[in-house]
Amino acid sequence: MGLLDWFKRQPRTAITAERWASTLAGLPFLDEKEFSTAGGLELSDEICISIAAQGCLPILKLGLSAYRDWLGIVVYADQFVVPRQIADENGVVHEYDDVLSGEAWEGGPLIISWHDVQLAGAGYNVVIHEFAHKLDMLNGEADGMPALHSGLTEEEWIAVFSAAYQDFCRRLDDGEETLIDPYAGDDPAEFFAVFSESFFELPEVVDREYPALYALLKRYYLQDPLARLKRQRSGVTP
Length: 238
Ligand SMILES: [Zn+2]
Description:
Elements: H1 3-9, H2 17-32, E1 34-38, H3 45-56, E2 72-76, E3 80-87, E4 93-100, E5 102-104, E6 110-113, H4 114-117, H5 126-137, H6 154-173, H7 188-201, H8 203-209, H9 211-221, H10 225-233
Bound molecules: zinc ion.
Zinc ion binds at residues 129, 133, 190, 193.
């Protein structure tokens, strides 16, 4: 299926201005990245364009160079199993299997489940999540602080980000059920990835619960998904 056929097959109402811009931004991305599949999945234009369009939404303003340090995207049909080893305090190594919908390797490819890519919406977006990890890794180990552009300082990032992270962890410790995926409480890297996902998918929730963090992410991504949502709701074409 060619690119134009694919566009024609998409429901018209689903193509918002930012979705369209993101799809167009994804075209050079398709040239730069190498897609491959695993587990017998057949690669299609639909898979590549869908991942490119969602993956390019976060970097619409940052530019494609924000994804410069890596090349490959490996797509599985569904969730995949990663064998892990962990040593306990006695030095005994335990082996277990992790079932994942996506994983970003530092200095390596991004791995993703096509089934989960298609589940995007209502706060969940595995593509944005994994690509956010890649942004985080651009300045070294994933630690919740991506490479900052000149509009932001490390001090203000740490201040706002840490306060929000600590508050979110406290709410989880209190047994609160959160609208934002509790996986964000795992560590600062997951907090950044999950809140990036929510920033684009649930901007109202992030802005209401963590206005300072919303403002910080808005300045980092140079986008305002909440304003965009309000414009769409009022019927004004962005
Ligand atoms: Zn993650």
